[in-house]
Design a protein that fits this description.
Elements (H helix, E strand, L loop, with lengths): L11 H16 L13 E5 L18 E5 L3 E7 L2 E7 L2 E5 L6 H16 L8
Parallel strand pairs: 1-2
Antiparallel strand pairs: 2-5, 3-4
Amino acid sequence: MPLIHGARHLSIFRLQEEISRLAQMAQTRMLALSDIRGDTFTITNYGAFGGRYGMPMILPPQVAILGTSRIRQMPVVRKGTVVPAYVLMLSLVVDHRLIDRAYASRFLARFMELVQKPLLLLAR
C-alpha cells in the first residue's frame, strides 16, 4: 500500500491529489520503497472485493488499521420502525500498548460523524 506522508496536515482536496498521484505511480510500477514502508495508520477497503465485514491485522510499525466494507442498503430500526438505510460496516484494530481504547472509540465516533456529514471535512 502506498503511504501518504503527513496526511494529517493535508486538506481533503490535497489528499485526493496525493491519492491520484500515488495510484498512477503504482499502476506504472514507479513507487519507491519509501512510498510503501513505515506507515503507522492504514485504511483498508475489503468492500472493494465484495467483503461485508472483516478484521484487519496490524502489521508493524502500524499502530492501527481501519477496515471498511461496501456500503449496502439494509433494514435498520429508527424510532421503533424498521426502515431501509445505507450502512457502512467498520472495524478498527489498534495496538492497545500504544492507543487507549477510549481514544480509539472517540476516533471511530468522529470518523462515523464525518462519513455521515462529509461537508464537515470542508470546515477545517
